[in-house]
Amino acid sequence: MRLHPSVWGVIVSVGSAASLIAAPLAPADPAAVSLTSTFSVTSPTEIPNDKLKPGSYSITVVDHLSDRIVLRVDDAKGKLHSTFLGVPNSGLSSGVAGPISWNLSSDHEGALRGFSFPGGGAVEFVYPKDQAVAIAKKSGGTVPAIDPASEGMVVKDNTLSKEDMAMVTLWTLTPTTVGPKDATQPAIQAARYQAPQTAQPAPPQEVAQNEPPAAPPAPAPQSLSVRRKPVLAKLPHTASNLPLILIGGLLSLFAAGVLSFSRRADDAA
């Protein structure tokens, strides 16, 4: 199975560009290497994200880059059991094709460390952190791991199927190794980057102090009442009576003249 073309656009945008655009790792002999191999287990055996029951299975190289390989394990009926990451590890190759197991302390259960493909070298499996630590405790070795808490933290894209989104998540994780004492480690290298949150300044604490009681507030200023003088009903009598006397005299002279003229007229008649 190859990735949908739109998946690569998401991978380049959310993953490590230097790693994800690297040239694919070419097998030693493409014509001789099978992308699917079969194997069987005789006891319960762990693989990343699952535990296989005794039976026959197939392992397929879904896709790969220079630093990582996506693998898929199906049972004999074609049922998908797990899709996970692997990393090239030529040191595991023993020249024999087939599964490579961890040497665990338990005789009844096992765990696959990797797989050697015919003519294509060995691939070491990358386990979720919890599984990796448990295997490391039993084997005493170091196990390639990714942080399962970060697997769901992928960019949502409605154009991708659920399977494609799972593939994008695998491509954007960065494997590292954990040992038997790494169980309490809060996170490993594969954890998604979280932008640090700016701490809010704490409010100032109030400290009780012995202070004198506050002075009572000053009384409000009272408005001053201003007594206004009443308006005079009439102007004060300050003028002289001389004009009136003069007018009265003139009127008297005028009246006397009229009477004198009337008498003369009567006498002449």
UniProtKB/TrEMBL annotation:
Residues 1-22 form the signal peptide. It holds the Pfam family Gram_pos_anchor. The chain crosses the membrane at residues 242-261. Keywords: Cell wall, Membrane, Peptidoglycan-anchor, Secreted, Signal, Transmembrane, Transmembrane helix. Residues 232-266 form the Gram-positive cocci surface proteins LPxTG domain. The keyword Nucleus does not apply. Residues 192-212 have a biased composition (Low complexity). It comes from the Bacteria. Residues 192-224 are annotated as: Disordered. This is Gram-positive cocci surface proteins LPxTG domain-containing protein. The lineage of its organism: Bacteria, Pseudomonadati, Acidobacteriota, Terriglobia, Terriglobales.
